Amino acid sequence: MTLDANVDVDVDVDAARRARLRARLGLESDAPASDAGEGDAGVDALEAGEEEEDATTQRALVERRLRKMKELRKMYRDQYWRLLDALRTKHRRFEVRRGHAGSRDAEEKANARREAAGEAAACGDDGCDERPMACAKFCFRHILKDETQILYVAGSDGAPRMRES
C-alpha cells in the first residue's frame, strides 16, 4: 500500500465516522455514506474494531468523568463548609458588636435593663438605631455629640478617636 492509499483509507474512515455520528444525532449528512467508494469493505472491518475501541474508550471516558465529578463535588462541599464557617465567624462578630452575643432575647433583655436603669436603649442621635456605648447616650459614631464625655476627640477624618493623655 502506498502513502496515497493510506490517506484514502484514513479519509474513508473519517467520512464513515462522520456519517455514523450524523446518523446518531439525526442530522442530515453533506454527502451520502455510500460515497466512500472502494474502501467500504475495509471500512466495515475497521468499524468493527473501532466499536470495541469506542466501547473501551467510552468506558474510560465515563470513569474519568465520574472521577472528576466526585472531585468537583468534594471541592464544592469543602468550599461550602469554609463559607459557612466564615459566615458563622462574621455573624458572631456582629452579635458581639451589637451587644447581644448570640442569644435571641438578649438584646431585648439588655434594652429593658438599660431602660430600667434610666439609660437610653438606642443612640440619642435622630435616625440612629445603634446601641449606645456603656454609660453614654450615644453610639460610637455619634459619641462626639455628647457634651459631657471627655474620652473621645474628633480625628482628622472627623471620626471619633481616643483622647491621648
Automatic annotation (TrEMBL):
Which keywords fit this entry according to its UniProt record?
A: Chromatin regulator, DNA-binding, Isopeptide bond, Mitochondrion, Nucleus, Phosphoprotein, Ubl conjugation
Give the KANL2-like probable zinc-finger domain ranges: 123-153
Domain of life (superkingdom): Eukaryota
Q: Where in the cell is it found?
A: Mitochondrion; Nucleus
Which GO molecular function, any one, fits this protein according to its record? DNA binding
Which one GO biological process term can you cite for this protein?
A: chromatin organization
**Which spans are transmembrane here?**
none
- Pull one GO CC term from this UniProt entry: NSL complex
Q: Specify one Pfam family.
A: zf-C3HC3H_KANSL2
Major localization listed first in the record, in broad terms: mitochondrion
Q: Which InterPro entries match?
A: NSL2, Znf_KANL2-like
Subunit details: Component of the NSL complex at least composed of KAT8/MOF, KANSL1, KANSL2, KANSL3, MCRS1, PHF20, OGT1/OGT, WDR5 and HCFC1.
Function, please?
Answer: Non-catalytic component of the NSL histone acetyltransferase complex, a multiprotein complex that mediates histone H4 acetylation at 'Lys-5'- and 'Lys-8' (H4K5ac and H4K8ac) at transcription start sites and promotes transcription initiation. Required for NSL complex stability and for transcription of intraciliary transport genes in both ciliated and non-ciliated cells by regulating histone H4 acetylation at 'Lys-5'- and 'Lys-12' (H4K5ac and H4K12ac). This is necessary for cilium assembly in ciliated cells and for organization of the microtubule cytoskeleton in non-ciliated cells.
Protein name, as recorded: KAT8 regulatory NSL complex subunit 2
